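S.,

As promised, the copper (II) ion run. Input:
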Amino acid sequence: MYFAAISVVRGFLLLALLLAWIAGNKASALLFSETEAKLNHKARKLITWAVILSISSAGVLAGMIWLMAATELVFWQDRLLIPPLLIIPILMVWMTSYPRLRRIRQATGRKTDSPLDVRLLSRASQPALVAPYQFVALGSLTGMYWTFTTTIPFDVLNETIPLVVLLIACMVLWLSHLNRSSRVSLTGTKPINRPLMRLLRRMAVLLVVLALGSIPFYSGLQASRLPETISMTAGPMDNGTGSQLAHHHHSGAVTASAEPVKEVSVDSLTGPAAGKPDVSYTLTAEKKAVKLASGRVVEAWTYNGQIPGPELRFRQGQLVEVKLINKDITEGVTLHWHGLDVPNAEDGVAGATQNAVMPGETYTYRFIAEQAGSFWYHSHQDSQEAVQKGLFGSLVVEPQEGMPQNMKDITVITHIWEGGGVAIGDQDGIQHMQIAPGTPVRLRLTNTDDWVRQSFKLLGTKFQVAAIDGTELHEPGDLTEVSLDLITGGRYDVTFIMPDSSVTLNVDQGGKLGIVMSPDGQGDLPKQMPNMPVFDPTHYGTPTSTPFDANSHFDREFTMILDNTLGFFNGKLALNYTINGKIFPDTPMFMVREGELVKTTIINRGAVEHPMHLHGHHMLVLSRNGAAVTGSPWWTDTLDTAPGEVYEVAFIADNPGLWMDHCHNLAHAAAGMTMHLMYEGITSPYTAGSATHNHPE
Ligand code: C2O
Ligand code: CU
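Predicted complex:
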């Protein structure tokens, strides 16, 4: 709804701009009419143009009304000035241009072939007749600018500078028409119509405007260049609102509180340093050409020479040790445990919690697996490229007692391989599995792709969504013919009891990729997929108690506004993906203290989806678009937000450190859509930026 409405506004603004541009030129050329008859004709046409402009402006207005009716204040508050920008000039067209056009028409009613006399010349060139048409164009241009630049959170400069420029442009236009009109009345002759001269003059004006504009443009470009070293602990602080702040003050240091907070380096927030690990793995990162099942070859970046990397599987409560060796990934690597809330120093973010592991280097991670569930791991150095090329794998933490003996536990991790297309792991075709009727089956669905919303369709049985993002749901009900859509980073665990007929898991529509599970290991994917609604976690399962809920008293409340904004990024003009109007490293750090209960309202004002991923914590979803979650508690670490959506989520700040919070469309993160959750008093010896090896995104 939101996106449709704002698109209507933008569309009609563009239309109004183009049409008003044409009409403005016609109005301005009125005095060049050769005869009275022609003037009469042109004046009538201009009246028609007034109607056309009114209609397109009404379209803008209708779009705005739709937007305001369908969405909350935060989606249009800053755009309220758009309607007056069109209504005022349109009113001028009707109140000043129109009567003058009518008088011209009356005076030229006999439609003679005689040239215009001085009275007609002066009437046809009056600024009050000509300028309003051009004001419509300027107004829509300003409106367009506003719809592409974020003014939420409110930014005075962004609101007022375009207004001031608009007013000056209108004045200049008016004065130049006035000047021309008085010359005409004085001399009684029209200026010679020299289209070439007019064109040249316009180009000159344009050049001057461009030259003037290039100064702020160029300095903006320069200022947007990323610094050579970025300290992740030095960003702008957002202390949120909420009860904690009543007695907190700005102190300028990394603590926002009056009470002193002990300084703690991320380096000290490790897992158990001593003790023999219960499980240990060695992952060696290397570049390698790897064959998919179909024989297609992928030039991959691998862990242990395979894509995806080996599945890591251990049990809740175990002490895990993973040794990472970088053989030849010149860009560097790390290991991040997506969704597993490990101590901060083990989180694997280059430039924040460690240095990127360069070729020939090793790094050892040690942590106790506190949660059971489905997770995945990936490099968090150059993560967009690293994940794309294969530096990831699935990670399963079984409950202490292990999975049921006879259960069939299947990991389904989808990825689009460069040069190989979409696949489940390295299987880019149809897999067959022989499963005896009555066997409990668990499918662990994970999507790892940037930009892709992967649809998984399970046919042939009723099933349950047992877990989301590694957390079990409470009393999940039976589902059939529901599409399970995952954005990048998210996980659904699906369970069912194997029937005595075949069950298919279908990825994509075409019957080409998926898993056939059947008692005899035979069968095919259906060629045609029924139309299915998309699984909605907000009303699924039944409620059960949670450590807090929507009525709890929150120590901190934050607002996270996602948007697209025309602006600069690292020395280039770009359509940026912004958080609270900013891109990294200017995005805020949400400041918290250990033990606080934190609520965040996530609002997507942009044009595309953003799966927001918070490291080190699981968020309880409280509401979506104002409607409370009524089913099972829904805990998430990667929350997809579509344009126009508003989510309220909350978590307990129980894992001190410096935690990334970013869009898991990693291309967006790499373009600056990243920020972090910051515990007061945390310091980090690591830096990112072009002068370092560390490029977390
Ligand atoms: Cu899966 Cu910060 O990432
Ligand atoms: Cu995004």
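Confidence is low (pLDDT under 50) at residues 246-255. Residues 33 and 39 are 5 Å apart (CA to CA).

- D.
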